[in-house]
């Protein structure tokens, strides 16, 4: 994939859609329910306008920062995403390799199709994402594996008590091929993800059998007491939950509606971000996830109170088109767009971006 073929992330997405079977594209692109939250994420981001600063003398902005204490070449990380070998034979290894080359963290999913130990050997800065699981002792085992592999943080996804009803997958009776597995799980329910049933999502059936729906604040407190790794909660939208997260001793929260794939009707992440950031007032790091598609979107998030963002679907698009090179292209485009946007906004560094003022503009469609 060349810059001429794909000068923007939207172009990468079009190439990926043309390459992938329809049911697989729907799995990547789809949301839950009527996909109102999925659409609202983009609409709300586009309503955030910034007031650029002028005469700042900015020539070569520096987007480098620290995320959870680790150096990052830019204020973004690769979001946790399951089963990446669906999109390319190298799967998560390719994505992690590209993240390492770009100098940004890679978040390993519980449902990764490659084990964390192999991913860590790519040299990427890795964080490990946890779903709360039913099999006794499995969460503790995964935490130990993440620690032993050298992961630098734990990211607990808190917005999946059950999987959202993803109608595209239901209509397509979507199931995993036999050669793509959840590499961290060896439970008896794993086969359900590979058994297509008309009018059902096999992945949803596997999730229902494997995930524990009763995750509560006491579980977070126990996890906090059991590990010295930085602890992040992903899926916070209400400032009241952000304050409870702070009381539980977490190091960061990710303001996220799961990319519109969980509660259809949840607020757009960017709309919820300012209130969460205000409530935490810098005492706990705040990141944003859901809908990021351009370097300007990263500026929007930082100006609204985030310290960084997680990038999801565009990475999968790049992976589908050209493996590690495709992911590298996506991450390079984001970094280039970010530097251009910083220059045009008069921002020499990330701190200056976070000091930008914003206004909301309702766009007609």
Automatic annotation (TrEMBL):
Keyword terms: Flavoprotein, FMN, Oxidoreductase
Cofactor(s) essential for the protein: FMN
Molecular-function annotations in GO: FMN binding; oxidoreductase activity, acting on CH-OH group of donors
Catalytic site positions: 258 (proton acceptor)
Protein source organism: Actinophytocola xanthii
Taxonomic path: Bacteria, Bacillati, Actinomycetota, Actinomycetes, Pseudonocardiales
Family indicated by similarity: Belongs to the FMN-dependent alpha-hydroxy acid dehydrogenase family.
Positions with a binding annotation for FMN: 80-82, 109, 129, 157, 234, 256, 258, 289-293, 312-313
Gene3D superfamilies membership: Aldolase class I
Protein name: Alpha-hydroxy-acid oxidizing enzyme
Chain positions recorded as glyoxylate binding sites: 27, 131, 166, 261
Domain FMN hydroxy acid dehydrogenase: 1-363
Record Pfam families: FMN_dh
PANTHER family according to UniProt: 2-HYDROXYACID OXIDASE 1, S -2-HYDROXY-ACID OXIDASE-RELATED
């Amino acid at each position: 994939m060349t810059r001429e073929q794909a000068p923007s992330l939207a172009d990468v997405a079009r190439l990926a859609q043309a390459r992938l079977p329809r049911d697989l594209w729907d799995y990547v692109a789809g949301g839950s329910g009527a996909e109102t939250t999925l659409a609202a994420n983009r609409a709300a981001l586009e309503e955030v306008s910034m007031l650029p600063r002028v005469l700042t003398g900015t020539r070569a902005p520096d987007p480098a920062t620290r995320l959870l204490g680790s150096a990052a070449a830019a204020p973004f990380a690769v979001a946790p995403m399951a089963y990446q070998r669906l999109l390319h034979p190298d799967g998560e290894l390719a994505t992690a390799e590209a993240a390492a080359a770009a100098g940004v963290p890679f978040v390993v999913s519980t449902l990764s199709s490659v084990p964390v130990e192999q991913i860590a050997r790519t040299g990427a800065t890795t964080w490990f994402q946890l779903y709360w699981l039913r099999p006794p002792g499995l969460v503790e085992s995964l935490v130990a594996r993440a620690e032993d592999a050298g992961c630098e943080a734990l990211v607990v996804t808190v917005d999946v008590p059950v999987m959202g009803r993803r109608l595209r997958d239901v209509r397509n009776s979507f199931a995993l091929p036999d050669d793509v597995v959840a590499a961290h799980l060896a439970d008896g329910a794993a086969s359900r993800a590979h058994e297509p049933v008309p009018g059902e999502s096999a992945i949803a059936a596997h999730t229902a059998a494997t995930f524990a729906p009763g995750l509560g604040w006491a579980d977070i407190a126990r996890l906090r007491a059991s590990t010295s790794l930085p602890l992040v909660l992903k899926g916070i939208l209400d400032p009241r939950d952000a304050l409870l997260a702070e009381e539980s001793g977490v190091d960061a929260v990710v303001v996220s509606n799961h990319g519109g794939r969980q509660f259809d009707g949840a607020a757009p992440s960017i709309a919820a971000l300012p209130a969460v950031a205000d409530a935490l007032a810098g005492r706990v790091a705040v990141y944003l996830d859901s809908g990021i598609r351009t370097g300007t979107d990263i500026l929007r998030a930082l100006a609204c109170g985030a310290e960084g963002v997680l990038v999801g679907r565009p990475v999968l698009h790049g992976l589908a088109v050209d493996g590690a090179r495709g992911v590298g292209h996506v991450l390079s485009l984001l970094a280039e767009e970010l530097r251009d946007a910083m220059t045009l906004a008069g921002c020499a560094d990330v701190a200056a971006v976070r000091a930008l003022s914003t206004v909301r503009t309702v766009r007609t469609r």
